[in-house]
Amino acid sequence: xxxxxxxxxxxxxxxxxxARARLYAGGSGKVLINDKDATTYFSRTEDVAAVSAPxxxxxxxxxxxxxxxxxxxxxxxxxxxxxxxxxxxxLLVDAEYRASLKTAGFLxxxxxxxxxKKPGLKRARKAPTYTKR
Length: 133
Known about the structure:
With about 130 residues, the protein is an alpha+beta fold. It has helices spanning about 40, 45-60, 75-95, 100-105; strands at about 5-15, 15-25, 30-35, 35, 65-70. Strands 1-2-5-3-4 form a five-stranded mixed β-sheet.
């Protein structure tokens, strides 16, 4: 990274969540999510681990401070969107990380979305109870 660039940014999405992660060089490994500490924002340890997993895998967790702004969707969707955003930002730092991040599945956007409700049904596929009489 050059000295002129202050940070690198990556965007990640999952369902209706959108995350924008910024990696600041020369950091101590601090992760902020919506200007709060990651352990404060995400109550589940799995969600905190998901956000920092790309950094831990590449061994770059101590080199960068991470700031993530995320909105929309639920808690786990926000965590996975943040993971994708951090992984994409790491690729901009060093393209050598691509192989390890790809095998771990951190560069794949989860394409599953909520299916829309159809008319005449209670939900997307649940039909009303059939009664013969």
